[in-house]
Amino acid sequence: MGLYKLELELKRGRHLAVRDRGGSSDPYVKFKIAGKEVFRSKTIHKNLNPVWNERTTLVVDCLSEPLYIKVFDYDFGLLDDFMGSAHLHLESLEQQRTIPVNLELTDSQHPDQDLGSLELNVTLTPKHSPVEERRDSTTMLLRRSWKRSTKQQSERRRKSLFWRGIVSIALIEGRDLTPMDPNGLSDPYVKFKLGHQKYRSKTVPKSLSPQWREQFDLHLSEETGGEVEITVWDRDTGRRDDFIGRCQLDLSTLTKEQTHHLQLPLEESRGLLVLLVTLTASAHVSISDLTITPLDDPLERKEIARRYSLLRSFSSLKDVGVVQVKVMRAEGLMAADVTGKSDPFCVLELNNDRLQTHTVYKNLNPEWNKVFTFNVKDIHSVLEVTVLDEDRDRSADFLGRVAIPLLQIRNGEQKSYVLKNKELSGPSKGVIYLEMDVIYNTVKAALRSVVPAEQKYMEEEPKVSKQLLQQNFNRVKRCIMVLISYGAYINSCFEWESTQRSITSFLLFVVGVWNFELYMLPLALLLLLLWNFFCSSNETSETTMEAMFEWDEDEDDKEDKESEHRGLLEKLYAIQDVFVSVQSALDEVASHAERVKNTVNWTVPFLSWLAVTALGAASALLYLVPLRYVVLVWGVNKFTKKLRNPFAINNNELLDFLSRVPSDVQVVQYRELKLDPGQSPSKRGRTNPS
Question: Which of 287, 290, 434, 433 is nearest to 365 (CA)?
Answer without folding.
Answer: 433
